[in-house]
Amino acid sequence: xxxxxxxxxxxxxxxxxxxxxxxxxxxxxxxxxxxxxxxxxxxxxxxxxxxxxxxxxxxxxxxxxxxxxxxxxxxxxxxxxxxxxxxxxxxxxxxxxxxxxxxxxxxxxxxxxxxxxxxxxxxxxxxxxxxxxxxxxxxxxxxxxxxxxxxxxxxxxxxxxxxxxxxxxxxxxxxxxxxxxxxxxxxxxxxxxxxxxxxxxxxxxxxxxxxxxxxxxxxxxxxxxxxxxxxxxxxxxxxxxxxxxxxxxxxxxxxxxxxxxxxxxxxxxxxxxxxxxxxxxxxxxxxxxxxxxxxxxxxxxxxxxxxxxxxxxxxxxxxxxxxxxxxxxxxxxxxxxxxxxxxxxxxxxxxxxxxxxxxxxxxxxxxxxxxxxxxxxxxxxxxxxxxxxxxxxxxxxxxxxxxxxxxxxxxxxxxxxxxxxxxxxxxxxxxxxxxxxxxxxxxxxxxxxxxxxxxxxxxxxxxxxxxxxxxxxxxxxxxxxxxxxxxxxxxxxxxxxxxxxxxxxxxxxxxxxxxxxxxxxxxxxxxxxxxxxxxxxxxxxxxxxxxxxxxxxxxxxxxxxxxxxxxxxxxxxxxxxxxxxxxxxxxxxxxxxxxxxxxxxxxxxxxxxxxxxxxxxxxxxxxxxxxxxxxxxxxxxxxxxxxxxxxxxxxxxxxxxxxxxxxxxxxxxxxxxxxxxxxxxxxxxxxxxxxxxxxxxxxxxxxxxxxxxxxxxxxxxxxxxxxxxxxxxxxxxxxxxxxxxxxxxxxxxxxxxxxxxxxxxxxxxxxxxxxxxxxxxxxxxxxxxxxxxxxxxxxxxxxxxxxxxxxxxxxxxxxxxxxxxxxxxxxxxxxxxxxxxxxxxxxxxxxx
Amino acid sequence: xxxxxxxxxxxxxxxxxxxxxxxxxxxxxxxxxxxxxxxxxxxxxxxxxxxxxxxxxxxxxxxxxxxxxxxxxxxxxxxxxxxxxxxxxxxxxxxxxxxxxxxxxxxxxxxxxxxxxxxxxxxxxxxxxxxxxxxxxxxxxxxxxxxxxxxxxxxxxxxxxxxxxxxxxxxxxxxxxxxxxxxxxxxxxxxxxxxxxxxxxxxxxxxxxxxxxxxxxxxxxxxxxxxxxxxxxxxxxxxxxxxxxxxxxxxxxxxxxxxxxxxxxxxxxxxxxxxxxxxxxxxxxxxxxxxxxxxxxxxxxxxxxxxxxxxxxxxxxxxxxxxxxxxxxxxxxxxxxxxxxxxxxxxxxxxxxxxxxxxxxxxxxxxxxxxxxxxxxxxxxxxxxxxxxxxxxxxxxxxxxxxxxxxxxxxxxxxxxxxxxxxxxxxxxxxxxxxxxxxxxxxxxxxxxxxxxxxxxxxxxxxxxxxxxxxxxxxxxxxxxxxxxxxxxxxxxxxxxxxxxxxxxxxxxxxxxxxxxxxxxxxxxxxxxxxxxxxxxxxxxxxxxxxxxxxxxxxxxxxxxxxxxxxxxxxxxxxxxxxxxxxxxxxxxxxxxxxxxxxxxxxxxxxxxxxxxxxxxxxxxxxxxxxxxxxxxxxxxxxxxxxxxxxxxxxxxxxxxxxxxxxxxxxxxxxxxxxxxxxxxxxxxxxxxxxxxxxxxxxxxxxxxxxxxxxxxxxxxxxxxxxxxxxxxxxxxxxxxxxxxxxxxxxxxxxxxxxxxxxxxxxxxxxxxxxxxxxxxxxxxxxxxxxxxxxxxxxxxxxxxxxxxxxxxxxxxxxxxxxxxxxxxxxxxxxxxxxxxxxxxxxxxxxx
Lengths: 848, 848
Fold this sequence. Notes:
alpha/beta; elongated; 34 helices; 848 residues
């Protein structure tokens, strides 16, 4: 009894016991095909356990395995992991070929076919099993007897062993090499990067060869029934006579279309019965496997075999359209449809993509910081970017790093490229907020503003005015103008997200600083604005000037005068935003950044400012110096500025109240939410609340209409989280600003972290960039402490997060579990957040 | 029955029921004097409750009160609060004087005496009760009938009321004004600033006048029995014939010495019996009141009255010597002695003081950031300060603010003055660490480095080379060289602190970066070094050069070469420190600051560096730019640098181990403690531990002697506190770096906080500067979380704090309550920490 060995492999029949978690997805899928009655050649599945055993030197009874396939079989081996995305070793075909079989096949199938099969096997075996250099074997060699002899000699010369003739030895060699390849360090890291668990196993399927070569109509092909770009029904694929595997898809001459095509012959014409059979199988697969499948088939002397079926690779747009169609055809439920699309795929939908089929010159690959692609003229300063935009030209702004001074330029640019910084650098955060494609941390490039050049690692120089392409989804920077694929935001997208809204149970708001942002958020059906940062409103040219006058005011009177000029501008902004949001809640954060962000830092800018203010340069310089800070992140900003120069908050509160009243007169009642930034002590909230209440009373008296508002605290300091119970006594909502909270919890500036974050994540010091994925242990605990203390003090306290994490599925799950009311994210992340929350609701309903 | 009124005042007799908490300290002290049989004039005490009633308009039965003193009495009213430091209204004498009494006294005591008494009363009443301008009354006016008439007319002209003649009206007026003055906002704020509780009450004592004027020997004086500067026994004070109150102490002509004195007449000669009586009373007071008292006395026609006794105001040195003497004389216990001296007073002992008796020109008063006084030549750059020091000249370094570049200059300077910054600015922190007197935040001054001038608010210009005096204990900046009082660190100081060590139950270590610091800490009997910051060792001229070579190294090999040169320097430092500490524990923090702190930032420095390194300036500039950070506090420093350039920690570990082995060979075994800074993730500790273990093994193998060490984590980020349980698995101690932890918990940079901290504390937003007094709510909670989680995971985990808070009594109390093993503080704070911990132990023993 060889029981131990017997357990190692299982012949795939409709009744065999096979599990994806034990034998992998390919084995399971093949069993389904068998059950459906498709002509699948005899197949044996090796379990994860068996393959792990092989990698450790415990080879199953190969002779017994081979005997399953009769005498002198030819077989293939293919990987079968739990998830095809986790990679795996390549297929090996024609195992069993040897000199004797070769000689026999020359007779039965002809010399060309026999030589081709043997040659293919010798090469594959040499490279994958014996680890010889692929270059030893001429891929263009004729399938002649000479070529076979040369290959065999080459193998022997390199390995000092004759090419193995025993099929059992061949199969054992293939199984061992595949098992070891799976457990190699590089494969392990690769699949873990794609989300595989550490202990992910590999199954293997050993299948009798359907040869695809030989007499009569023989060949192989691949067929699918949707357009992988659009998801629209369409039969695509290729067929190639006298071929094996996926040869038809490579650029080999002779591959033909499947359906009738004016450009050439087609399978439909050549083998109409086989074509009809394939179409029928395709339909059956869609019905029974409940997805769009790609079939790999072989014709052997006119007989059709289905070797494999895999899910069709698809674009984001296609994935949405496919699940909608499946759902509408009654094949899958809405729940299935919603769970099948990765939320991240939706963001792809919203940005143009570089056409992946067109080869281009890649200048560098760096960090993909904000998705989408852009083609534009290279510029090196924000001023230049604005000038270009004013002339209707698209440009790519390249800087070593960006600063708040650059926000206007970034808005004007079609794409942003920086030499420094990581996912959380200023450039990356702002670009995502603006929805501008962005590549950061391109450390192989030398961006020299003064020289107006970018020098690539290879020494190529790009100059201002050169056109480049930026792919913020892949991190690639390409020379010249690459062709683009543009998003089709169609009905299916809207339908799909409306299904998501039907099931989700946590609010999604948008971070929108401007009417433009609000418009996008509203178009994406956000439940309101969760974070309206008011300071970005002051970077527009004419406002910046007034802002600077305010900063340079020597007396409160002068300051009030400048603020009085800013008031109507702010009021107009708020009115536009309130109107756009049409009664949905709008949460406005009071002025936050340090004042020095509004001042120029270069000689030129200082001269201009001195002129504009009619002050000596030394005066301007002195004020700039006086406002400079060692650690601006931890300096005089947020509510600290609000208490030091209270006139700013007074003005903002008035603008908010007046705007709310004026918009309410027209229609939907506006109850603005006002949020205080950077709180670290309870008294800060009390003092600001006192002043805002006074402004509210004054506006109410002046306008004769009731002024109402809700006050909240932005929890950004660890201390605010710890004292949340006390803060809750003074406000009706807390919104966790997870960007700053992460910075302070880690003692880590997002602007400076880029220099070592990559190395930290690679070394496993941080399992993820905490600015990208919410840190559950540290920041998360502070969120829970804050939430628990806040709600204990005030059960109806509204809770939310409004940092960059707001759009991340994992962070949303955390907030949902913690009982938060909503998350707020940048405009272009709203759709994916809507889907992610729907999925969470569905999964947790399923769990319960 | 006027029961309610009766309760309001109590005649002081030896059996009356008086409590400090109800009637104040003066009333209680007067009762003690009465009990001791001293000739105290009849006195009535008004309770806190009565005075609160008066302030609210409920006047007690003044007629009944006055009747206690017989017919037509003259009385005085003095404040009697719980603590004399809390301030209070000034005494009012001679209440009851009116035209009739004046006329009568001209007969009984003579015109001069009668006029003087009446004039004094009119003036005091006018100013304190009627709130007239003091300037209305000529203080130099002769005590003539004319002067009296003028004063009475003046009063009537201003108030449109005749001067009140009814003694009851007078007394009621005085009582009411004193009560109201106590409850005024300014008095309230003042006493709260001095530590009084919000509800602090005021008692009043009404005392029959012992006139001190009139026929025979009459007069008043003040006597004490120790030298208030040194605490040595010595009768001091003055007596003035025909005077009242404390007139003898003002500069009035005619005041005489008390004891025989070659410089002039003395009370001992003039009234030997009275003198002997006073000496006897003094001795009695010392025995019975258990402290050194100052007696206020009056002689009326040869008869001695004791009006009041208050504790002698004393210098820090005197306070120590006085309690030791009291203890040695068996008057008080050691516990009492230890509890009587304020810990903060000890730090005064360690620094020279500006002689307070010599008047000087005060240029400004700003924040007293590091105690002690210094006289020196004004310089405006660290380079200049070092040059001066090299020539043996003392200088005061004045800068707008200091940076890490200035540390060497600060070390060289005798005092530091900055225009910007608060108690926690770089200048303040470093100065306290160095024990250099320092005044910061002198915002009234304009320190202009380029011009080499300081401009005062009054427009006076000080130039480089001018001599100024800095008082870091009071915050005063004075023109010229002021005379100094130098500390006498004598036996009494040692004795006293040895008493403290006998009772304290928590360790006190010293923060010592250099052998010099270690020496001071050792002299002050610290229990070890709690924080040895290794980076300061690299700022010495020749080391800085090597350090910069290391930073500019292009390859690990070049970096290793530079580090190999630094190794023997570090080893030498560590050997010296280990030798000085003679077997006491030494906790060494691995390299912490960002590398850019070691690079020059001015044109001149960059040029020099380029020359030294033989590199183009553009190269140097580029490297400096590349290392620049937006928020250095939150950047690439601490363990992040340790993981990025691991060779630095390798070198330091080797230097520590080699030094420990070499010193151990000579005597006491050294088990170094190695601390990792800025940890925010567990894996950081694992990785560093792995490398240090490897170095330890290597050194052990090379030297053939066992290498042992203890590893610890410096908890500076909120996240480290939260994950303390996990960290404890990898180390044997946690030391909380409360400076950085406070910065991150509040999101507040200590270098930038100075600009609003003052206003924040004034507005009560923060009750105290959290960099000065540990924030119990936020930072404190993180300490408790960290301590609890750490100890749960590892019960023998050693816990400590090593931030600036280590020397603060309140913070020490917090750490003691939390079960910490020790606190670590700057060298000059060690004595006060030793006393503070002793007091905590005594108080808690008393409580239990």
